Amino acid sequence: MRSESSMSKPHQKLIKLAKKAELCVSRKEAQKLIKKAEKAHAKLAN
Known about the structure:
Elements: H1 9-23, H2 27-45
Helix pairs in contact: 1-2
């Protein structure tokens, strides 16, 4: 796998959000993480 420094910023953000999602316990927090992940994913698609 590539090192974090060689990845694009949106990709790094998705990885960070995935790590947070693993520890997420509340529905409200999960919804925020999903919204942020969708935004980062949209930037990757462009």
